Amino acid sequence: MLLLGLLAVGGLYTAVVPGNSAVADDAAQSQQIEEGKKLFAVNCASCHGLNAEGGTDGEGRMAGPSLIGVGAAAVDFQVGTGRMPAMQTGAQVPRKDPVLNEEETAALAAYIASLGPGAPIPPEEVYDVSNATEEQITRGGELFRTNCTACHNFAGQGGALPQGRYAPTLMGVDPKHIYEAMLTGPQQMPVFSDQVLTPQDKHDIIAYIKGMEEQSDPGGFSLGRLGPVSEGLWGWLFGIGALVAVAVWIGAKGVKAGRSHSE
Amino acid sequence: MSDDRLPAKPDAHGEDDGYGGDLVLADPAGDPVADPGLEPHEDRITDIDPDAATRVERQVATMFGLATLLTIAFVVAYFAIDKDTVVWIGPLRTNALNLTLGMTLGLALFLIGAGAIQWAKKLMVDKEIVEHRNPVHTSEADQAEMLKEFNAGTAESGFTRRKLIRRSLIGALGVLGIPPIIMLADLGPPPGRRLFETVWTEGIRVVNDVTLRPLRPSDMVIGQLVNGLPANLQELAEEDHTEYLNAKAKAAVILVRIRPDQITPLPGRENWGVDGILCYSKICTHVGCPISLYEQVTHHVLCPCHQSTFDLADNAKVLFGPAARPLPQLPIMVDSEGYLAAQSGFHEPVGPSFWERGERG
Amino acid sequence: MATKFAPPVQYIDDRVGIGKPFFRHALRKVFPDHWSFLLGEIALYSFIVLILTGTFLTFWFKPSMTEVEYQGSYELLRGLHMSEAYASTLDLSFDVRGGLLMRQVHHWAAILFVAAMMVHMLRIFFTGAFRKPREFNWLIGFGMLFLGIIEGFIGYGLPDDLLSGTGLRITQGMIQASPVIGTWLSFFIFGGEFPGNDMVPRFFIVHVLLIPGLILALVTVHLILVVYYRHTQYPGPGRTNRNVVGYPLYPVYTAKAGGFFFVVFGVTALMGALLQINPVWLYGPYNPAEVTAGSQPDWYMGWLEGSVRLMPGFETQILGVTLSWNLIIPALLVPPAFVTLVALYPFIEQWVTGDKREHHLLDRPRNQPTRTGVGVAFMTFYGVLWLAGGNDLIATHFGISLNNVTYVLRVLVFVGPVLAFWVTRRICIALQRADIERLLHGLETGVIVRTPDGGYYEKHAPIDKFETYTLTLHENQVPQELGPETDENGVAAPRRALRKLRVKMSEFYYADNVLKPTRHELEEARAHAEHAHDDGHHAVEDVTGDEQLDTTTREVEAGSGRDH
């Protein structure tokens, strides 16, 4: 009788109380969030407010928007590409060397995610393009040219926006960050939600971008992959320059002997 | 012609070659300095030193010889190098065949040219020679002769005398210019109403470009941009590819979702959106480039061609740049199955302006 | 030395008569030697390169907009549906050996062709080589420049890629917006709506047959005239309006000009090897719903692009029709007006100066300050519009606001040319004065001499007679005169208002021109210099504070004596 009772209580206990690993997960998670909160206070609160509710610069202008509900992916993108913490306010916050390492970035992301629901950090399989098929890459190109080139240019070199803003280059960007940018729409970039551009669509786009990055320039120096403006510049500087130099050589009088011909 | 030096007296100006002109010279007394004639010829080193000349000869021959070798290298490379090989040279990552063919050919040609030029400059006789120049116009004597012959011919033909022949000939030839122009009439169909219409009409769903997925309002979040097409475009793609492209060039749209409190619709357009989701023509009203450079915070779109900027929260009003009209807005609704669809076609012609467009088309 | 033709030559001579004086004189035709006379040759040789490489390309390019599925070597686009034109361009680039090289050499040669024509035209302008009898050649050359630009634009539109397709869409939009006939013209050119499927085949024929044929005909006439008139030459000792001094065609110019052809071809081929141009595989096939940031046309269309970018957006709807001022002004009015002014410049200048004589001696630009100023003003206007065509790239590369770049250029397009004119004219006049200084006072030797009483002066050496002649060979010119209002019988002079305008303009044209010293002044200056060498003083010392200074640089008084 006692054995049955013990077994029952033991079984009940096991069923109801979460296992050790779950406890450990929870504990680790809350520790991470705590860490994130501390990092936030030091690095972000001055612009984004003590509770990430958004902050002003003292003159009523917004210094940092509210981060409640932006989600972990947005944080991972902004901090992972070094954009945040921003060093100075300007027309746009540029990409730079990350200030916080991966662990700190993850902690911050966890903290922000805890404040309100938002897009989570994508799992690796959606942005891992190492096994992309030819069909996916070609399709990705079509999607890229329809949705991305208007801002980022045909080769992902970036482009101008109004009032001093710009769409940055896509070259040398981690696939995860490309995914997160599409998903969260950082700064002026619009959002491309997973319901419209599915994870497969986004994967294909990233595959194309990486394909283009690895693509050689069979015609020679790429001249920036910026189109006819740089080509025209080089045509004049190199082409006309060289040819005029040769023309000057042809017409030059040349060294004289300084003495006359003696027969 | 001859090698003589010129006479000392300059005849560069002041001489009236029969056409007068009303130019006045300030100092008719003539030039301050008389023409000293050509500068005396100075020898080059290669003219007086046979060794120097031989050196240059070898130089030129070397250039030609190298050019020959490079041309052979071109031929070898063409067959030897695989067309897909990529080569890395410092920052340059390029196609090996293109680089090799171009460099060998380019240098070969250049060296031939450089050799010829060096030969001319250093070895060919470089004494300047003088050629006399006659006035371009005919001398008076020749003019008289010419007129005599021409007038004789004209008189013999009777062209000036016989007015009837002359006039009828001119008439016949003149009218002959019309058929070539008329023959071009079938170059294209008359524009008709085509520029006023698109394939959009009531009930046609908006689908995402490329993926052709239809859209529910819940698929879009605030700040989202969707490049869209009408759902009925795809059937056209299978039927007639050209018609499909023509229709696409007018029917492409963009959908954006903006916070409803930021939108200021014109009177009558209050129900043209769905919960802050607005649909506009993607075709710029300036000269027709597709626009999808959307800034989600300012809700402006910028056309990359000439930088026309439109405010999508304010009926796509033009804020900057050469566009003269806002982007036409497509009124949308949610259809019976919950997808975004057009309430009707556009209320005005899309794309660039044209003469017949008038107020509202 | 042989006196009879060798048998093969005799064979030809029996049928052509190649030994006649006409050909003999052609052999020893004289061409003057100066680098600036070779610029037109760059254009000519580029044209030949274009024909050679272009012919190669036509063997593979398919001028058709029929849809095909790409299955060639370029992986990033494999399986995509595209026009045959685009697919065949990809084939040329990746699957035809040497195809990419030929494509790139062709495109670079086109870039150089137009650039060289422009530089050549500027040289002709600034040296006054367009004056009688060469006005027709100016017009022909101008026509070739215009045709070359259209040819290039159509040419890079043939592959039907995203960038050039966007450019064609813009052109179509501009045509469509033209008043009255716009829509009809657009439908007729494109065979219906845009893009349609007639665009590529029609433009192909224009590009490979019509325009090259026209250019070929024009350049033939152009060169015949150059040879017929005999080449112009810069002023110098022994060079007059009645001769031409230089080297003979055979052998010197055969080698120099022939060699230069190989150089031009070689440089273009090197550019085709090293500098990637028009990478159509990166742009993707044309799709009317796609566009790229940084859409620009090739450089020679840049000024039109800029003109359209700078114009604010105005249009009026009146009586049921639309007048698109935002397109009419920058595309249909301003560019034609500008190019017409340039084309007609020789005639305008002739009317203003009244100079109807033949000119075979060139002007040094400094001796025609107004013409040079006008030229620089035109270049500035063109240049500002050209910069405006790349305003978004300027914005991103220099970190400036795109909108501010546009605002600044809108102002600069008006202010710039005026400023450039004024500055250039003053520089020319200053250079003329420097010439006078050189004539009267000689070269600065850099040798400083100290006099016994402590003064310093620099020794000047007189310039030789050859240079003196060169510096005084140009003409003094003064404005036209109005003439009497009536002749001796009291009959009023006809078209007086026009004549007044003409005189006013010639005053503007010649105002502030520096007159060259007279023989007397030159001799006096020389005497001074000689005198100075004897007793250790130098002419410079005498001139300082001497009244002589006021008369050595006389200026034309133009009515109110305005200083520009």
Description:
The complex is a heterotrimer of chains A (263), B (361) and C (564). With 263 residues, chain A is mainly alpha-helical. Chain A is 52% helix and 3% strand. Chain A has helices at 2-16, 20-43, 45-48, 72-80, 102-115, 124-127, 134-147, 149-152, 175-184, 199-214, 228-251, and strands at residues 55-56, 62-64, 159-160, 166-167. A two-stranded antiparallel ribbon of chain A has the order 1-2. In chain A, helix 4 packs antiparallel against helix 5, helix 4 (72-80) packs across helix 9 and helix 7 crosses helix 10. Chain B has 361 residues and is an alpha+beta fold. Chain B has 3 domains: 1-26, no CATH class; 49-122; 196-356, Rieske [2Fe-2S] iron-sulphur domain (Rieske Iron-sulfur Protein). Chain B is 32% helix and 14% strand. Chain B has 8 helices and 13 strands. Chain B is extended, with a radius of gyration of 38 Å. Residues 1-29 of chain B have low confidence and may be disordered. Chain C is mainly alpha-helical and 564 residues long. Among the domains of chain C are: 40-289 and 297-305, Up-down Bundle (Cytochrome Bc1 Complex, Chain C); 424-475 and 495-563, no CATH class. Chain C has a two-stranded antiparallel ribbon with strand order 1-4. Chain C has a two-stranded antiparallel sheet with strand order 2-3. In chain C, strands 5-6 form a two-stranded antiparallel sheet. Chain C is globular and about 90 Å long. Chains A and C meet through helix 7, helix 8, strand 3, strand 4 and helix 10 of A and helix 5, helix 10, helix 15 and helix 16 of C. Strand 3 (129-132) of chain B pairs antiparallel with strand 4 of chain C.
